[in-house]
């Protein structure tokens, strides 16, 4: 096998495993005779919503609180019109990301899925909430979801365990494919604008040499200067910006002709990112392309 064809094989496998994972729900529904749609729960963001519906299957009715396509900046403002009274549980990421806007009367229903997650600290003290961007940490998320569902619905505990095990196998396989793919790219240095990709970078030995959170207008002078330095020092050909942020502050760098903007997606739910595993496969492919990788 030609070495140059290896990344293409991995990318094809990523697409297949992420797509096939969408199809296994019906198999378990038929095999175990689930009590369908009896448990009303909610999840704050799409990646968590997809994990809950994947583990829960037809036994749960899952409501997504932040609609697909909405920015994380809007998350707290969208709970006002949501009907939370009939929910048994609200699955949440926590750590300042997605629970502040939940009405006080419903806060007792919040179940944060971070138990056994290896949280990364921001500035040495505050936990970064973006831990779902790690396939390895998502194993803990999924186990916490299955445990909570079994607690509120013991009749279907075996179903949740079986579905959890399949999800974990698919996630572990995808994780290995990404580990095989990204070292084939041209560099491990990345510049990121928008949200925190530290968990993903940690898992796959990427070095975030420049990061800046979203801004409304132009980047501050020191941020522009440090990005210029990173581009010139490491020969970066791409700056990664999240789909939920406006990339306008980065446009001056693209006008110089040597750097392009590629999009990452923290939330998914749209187009070819309609499952959590598809979302992670998409981000891996974007990073591979933006880091100079070539699939032939």
Write structural notes for this entry.
This is Zinc ABC transporter substrate-binding protein. Belongs to the bacterial solute-binding protein 9 family. This protein has 296 residues and is an alpha/beta fold. The protein folds into two domains: 177 residues, Nitrogenase molybdenum iron protein domain (Rossmann fold, 3-Layer(aba) Sandwich); 105 residues, Nitrogenase molybdenum iron protein domain (Rossmann fold), CATH 3.40.50. It is built from nine helices and ten strands. Strands 2-1-3-4 form a four-stranded parallel sheet, with helices on one face. Strands 8-7-9-10 form a four-stranded parallel sheet, sandwiched between helices. The chain has a two-stranded antiparallel ribbon with strand order 5-6. A hairpin with a 3-residue loop joins β5 and β6. α1 runs antiparallel to α9. The longest helix has 25 residues. It is globular, with a radius of gyration of 20 Å. The relative contact order is 0.15. About 4% of the residues have low confidence.
Quick structural summary:
This protein has helices at about 5-20, 25-30, 45-55, 135-150, 155-180, 200-205, 220-235, 250-255, 275-290; strands at about 40-45, 60-65, 90, 110, 120, 125, 190-195, 205-210, 240, 260-265. By secondary structure, it is an alpha/beta fold.
Question: What attributes does this structure have?
Answer:
4-stranded parallel beta sheet, alpha/beta, 40% helix, 296 residues, Rossmann fold
């Amino acid at each position: 096998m030609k070495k140059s064809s290896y990344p293409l094989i991995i990318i094809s496998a990523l697409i297949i495993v992420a797509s096939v994972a969408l199809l296994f729900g019906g198999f378990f529904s038929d095999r175990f005779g689930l009590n369908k749609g009896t448990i009303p729960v909610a999840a704050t963001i799409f990646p968590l919503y997809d994990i809950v519906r994947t583990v829960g299957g037809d036994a749960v009715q899952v409501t997504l609180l932040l609609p697909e396509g909405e920015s994380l900046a809007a998350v707290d403002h969208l709970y006002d019109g949501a009907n939370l009274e009939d929910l048994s549980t609200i699955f949440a990421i926590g750590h300042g990301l997605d629970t502040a806007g939940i009405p006080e009367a419903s806060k007792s229903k919040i179940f944060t899925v971070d138990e056994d997650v290896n949280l990364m600290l921001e500035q040495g003290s505050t936990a970064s909430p973006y831990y779902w961007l790690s396939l390895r940490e998502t194993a803990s998320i999924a186990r916490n979801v299955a445990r909570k569902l079994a607690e509120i619905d013991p009749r279907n505990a075996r179903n949740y365990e079986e579905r959890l095990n399949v999800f974990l196998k698919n996630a572990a396989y995808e994780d290995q494919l990404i580990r095989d793919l990204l070292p084939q790219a041209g560099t491990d240095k990345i510049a990121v604008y928008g949200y925190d990709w530290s968990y993903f970078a940690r898992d796959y030995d990427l070095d975030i040499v420049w990061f800046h959170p979203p801004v409304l207008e132009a980047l501050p002078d020191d941020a522009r200067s440090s990005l210029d330095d990173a581009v010139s020092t490491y020969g970066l050909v791409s700056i990664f910006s999240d789909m939920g942020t406006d990339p306008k502050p980065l446009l001056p760098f693209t006008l110089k002709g040597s750097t392009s903007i590629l999009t990452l997606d923290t939330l998914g739910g749209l187009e070819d990112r309609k499952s959590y595993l598809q979302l992670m496969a998409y981000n891996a492919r974007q990073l591979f392309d933006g880091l100079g990788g070539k699939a032939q």
